[in-house]
Amino acid sequence: MTMSEGMVLHPERHALHGITVIIDTPGSVTYIGRFDVEDERGMHLINVAIHDAESDGPTEDFIAQSRRFGVRVTRKHLVVPHEDVKTIQRLGAA
Amino acid sequence: MPYPEMMVKAMRDDVTRLGVKELRTVEQVDAELANPSGTQLIFINSVCGCAAGAARPALAMALSHSVVPDQVLTVFAGQDLDATARVRSYVSEYQPSSPSAILLRDGEVVHFVHRHMIEGQSPDAIAADLIAAFDRHCSPTMAA
Questions:
Q1: CATH pick for B5-137 out of 3.40.30.10, 3.40.47.10, 1.20.1510.10, 1.10.3720.10
Q2: Which end of chain B, N or C, is less packed with Cβ atoms under 10 Å?
Q3: Which run of H or of E encompasses B74?
Q4: A11 touches chain B (CB under 8 A)
Q5: A10-88 in CATH: which number?
């Protein structure tokens, strides 16, 4: 094997597979984690940080801190049900 | 659990062939980071094909720039566990992230390229970010 430029080990996965995303919900909770797969249960995230604006402060601060200092993981795996996904965007997006 | 060494050798070689010094033990990490001076880039290598497959060639592009850090180091996350943990202990305000790249000036983090900044990006875009950081924080007169 030579330099692994552009190498993708699992091209059959979801387009967001391996991408760290922000999932906003209809309530006060926001998730940041690495998108794994989507199935009938919902969206599977791994290495997840969970933020509740009602108890943890402004969501904007949570996102800004995650962008600057990285994702503070509290859950190894989490499934966000489809009905709880209001928006989904890349953490790395401008 | 680490992958078999034969699976990751090419990924190590992708980095070390650039002249990057690989640190595989705690002692090697401390020898380079305990008494820092000047600029140091630490590349946290990773098996992950999605992100690391773009990060390694990006590192190669960035290191061909006219302005580079005084010293370029690497550890392999998921493989050399103790060495990687030791590096992270020097930048403990930042969450673990691999692949990633950390630019230090006199031991202080001046630029941190997290995994989430690498995911989905082209090697050119990642290299451009690193080069901009080199231009901002590294001295042309001290370039290797």
A1: 3.40.30.10
A2: N
A3: strand B71-76
A4: no
A5: 2.30.30.100
Q: Closest-CA residue in chain A for B61?
A: A5
3-state secondary structure of A77: strand
Q: Which residue of B has its CA nearest to A16?
A: B120
Active-site annotation of B, residues: 48, 50
pLDDT of A25-82, one tens digit each?
A: 999 999 999 999 999 999 999 999 999 999 999 999 999 999 999 999 999 999 999 9
The predicted model scores a pTM of 0.89
Question: CB-CB: which of A4, A7, A69 is closest to B95?
Answer: A69
List of chain B residues whose C-beta atoms are within 8 Å of the C-beta of residue A75: none
Residue ranges covered by each domain of chain B: 5-137
